């Protein structure tokens, strides 16, 4: 065997193994871009086609279909769980329902597994038969070189044996290299003994050169093949053909080999660069997914003070989950681990969210029952014609309604609309029957407007008793009876606009004055005893915490009120004013605590 073809054998050793055992080699080759499946049904149809069709199942595609199916299966199962939890379901009682698609998928995969096992067994048997046939050919060539005088006569038989060798394909991978070396050894020995005339030998070399030149041209054209993977596989076939062709003239052997080797180097380099790019992309995907895990873990660690925080963080996590789906696979050894980390962070957040809203459900139910009880009381009063007494009772019911905590928004809106409708029905009936009261209502309207004008005048005054004056006018306003229904909202808005401005201005100056007075009285408090200041501070701190809790309750209730009606809007305005007053009082208490701390120093 010539030196160039010895070099060829060493450099394409791996390709020989791959060509002889494609089912092993293919596991080390990255697939070309695969078809994207959107649903489990699409994957199942493809698996059924493979299971019951004529095509040979390819391990890479079968593994890919299995990965895609269970990715879609897990996503679908998690979507059902999320919908259940978002609807307020109890995660401890949630049960995963059987998936018929998964059962069908497993059954079809079992058929494919059996087909692949059968094909593999047949291929192994065929390789053993091929090995036996090639060993027989080697023995025949070996026998030819023991009778050199008969070499010329055996030439045609020798060429026929070479043709038979080429037609016999795969043999067991562990026997391929040794088998090839023995074959080449005895072929070269036969050529060395061959006493052909010069014309016949030159003709043989010429035909071999033509064949190898054609293979060089084919290998060079592969450099323009867009599909890098396909080009690599085609090159392996060309190497197999090159090995099967006999030698060329000695002076041309190195040149033709160098040409074929150079073309092969181009394809192998492109193949290597392609996989380096795939690995780099997977590493980038891992980095991006790790960053998303860190984001979602940080969100899950944040404190949620109310339902608003839970919903805000839920929206952020859903956005992160959407971004996750746009990122491709991470490296195989990390792909499952990074997904499990991501899913664990999501499960932790949504599990705690479900527990929180489960706790709210009991409170919501209790509050809804209280409001339904008030509705029943209102229904019992709605047809009463004792206008004055019943009006007071409705007003009392409305005040009690405001003290009840929040319920689920949809239920709360329905209850409020029902309660408001009953109240409106009574007051409209009272107004329709109270024609003789309209004069009194007009007079009340005039009185309320006079009080409003007095409040406007106070806004321009200065002095220490402004708050007392405002409080007197507020009490006077509240003691005035009903006004005409059409004027009710207008005078109400005018009154509270003036009052809100006064409270805003007065609260600042009054709070400062109350704080100064408190600071001046601290020495007197200290004289009561050694622990007097500490006791006063403890009392103020309890007051501060109570105010803080009361503000939280009002703000939660505000989130569940419906402001679609005028009466509903009035209730919200009233509660907002109450919240602001409580906050001012809480800030004053906090400043008093700071004053005691400064005194203790």
First CA to last CA: what distance? 102 Å
Count of runs of 4 or more consecutive helical residues:
20
Overall morphology: elongated
**Sheet with most strands:** none
| DSSP strand count | 0
Could you explain how this protein is built, in words?
This protein is elongated. It is an all-alpha fold and 601 residues long. Helix 2 (13-20) crosses helix 10 (228-244), helix 11 runs antiparallel to helix 12 and helix 11 packs parallel to helix 13 (332-381). The termini are far apart. It contains 20 helices and no strands.
List keywords for this structure.
601 residues; mainly alpha; 20 helices; elongated; disordered N terminus
How do you describe this structure in short?
The protein has 601 residues and is mostly helical. The protein contains 20 helices and no strands.
Set out the fold topology.
Layout: H1 3-11, H2 13-20, H3 22-25, H4 40-52, H5 59-86, H6 100-144, H7 155-167, H8 173-193, H9 198-221, H10 228-244, H11 250-301, H12 307-325, H13 332-381, H14 387-403, H15 409-433, H16 438-458, H17 466-479, H18 485-527, H19 532-558, H20 566-600
Helix pairs in contact: 1-2, 1-11, 2-8, 2-10, 4-5, 4-6, 5-6, 6-7, 6-8, 9-10, 9-11, 10-11, 11-12, 11-13, 12-13, 13-14, 13-15, 16-17, 16-18, 18-20, 19-20
